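Tip: read the tokens left to right.
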């Protein structure tokens, strides 16, 4: 069984770092052999932005998740202990996540796939990715 992650990149846990809950979920699913093959455990986009903002090396994070299988609160504690996190860095990271827009072709492809007109009302990657995830989840898990 493979699972499509549906935690939004706009979600933050107690530490306040947007996308970290999603990254934790994807890496955890991957470590358990349950991540849908269309999703990377830690890719180049928001995943790498988040790791960079935390001052954590990608492979170290993935190794930790695979070895310890932490719950989310434990993951945040590990990030605090092993990264370099401050309020200004978190704010800058969250602003970068919220301010990122996909290119026109990516936006159009996502909106077309989910059946929403590309009228310029949805530009940000967080909401576009949410729509794509929810559509993929529905197609794979519900409508099957």
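Filled-in amino acids:
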């Amino acid at each position: 069984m493979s699972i499509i992650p549906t935690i939004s990149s706009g979600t933050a846990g107690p530490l306040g770092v947007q996308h970290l809950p999603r990254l934790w979920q994807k890496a955890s699913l991957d470590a358990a052999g349950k991540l849908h093959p269309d999703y990377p455990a830690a890719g180049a986009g928001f995943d790498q932005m988040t790791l960079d903002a935390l001052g954590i090396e990608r492979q170290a994070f993935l190794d930790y998740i695979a070895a310890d299988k932490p719950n989310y609160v434990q993951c945040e504690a590990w990030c605090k202990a092993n990264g370099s996190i401050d309020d200004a860095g978190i704010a800058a990271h969250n602003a970068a996540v919220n301010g990122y827009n996909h290119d026109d072709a990516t936006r159009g492809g996502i909106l077309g796939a989910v059946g929403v007109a590309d009228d310029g009302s949805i530009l940000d990657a967080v909401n576009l990715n949410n729509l794509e995830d929810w559509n993929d989840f529905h197609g794979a898990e519900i409508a099957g």
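The mean pLDDT is 96. Residues 11-100 form one domain.
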